[in-house]
Amino acid sequence: MAIGNPKAKVTLIEYGSMTCPHCREFARDGVPPLLANYVKAGKVRFEFRNFVLNGYDLAASLVARCAGPKRFFPATERIYAEQPKWIARIQSTPPARMEAAKA
User: Fold this and answer.
1) What's the longest Cα–Cα distance across the chain?
2) What's this model's pTM, rounded to 2 decimal places?
3) 10-16/44-50 β-pairing
4) Fewer Cβ neighbours under 10 Å: the N or C end of the chain?
5) 20 in Cβ contact with 53 (< 8 Å)
6) Contact between residue 47 and residue 11 where contact means Cβ atoms under 8 Å apart
């Protein structure tokens, strides 16, 4: 998924994991100024590629992608913003319930 001027001289490609706390920090602290100062000005095209580390990453990536091209970036922003909550819920799920879900 990409945002910005397709004819920009610079394309920045991020490989991001939806479960990675460092990727979350970049989404929170780095992406807003990037979009405001470079993408909206037409200087940079920003492309996001999912770096899938595990099944939870796959599910989160699919949720964002299913939102469609226009809503992908807002959905990704929300997934990163809520990451500590949904990761904690996954981690607190009893092992027997996780095994049942896998089956």
Assistant:
1) 52
2) 0.87
3) parallel
4) C
5) yes
6) yes
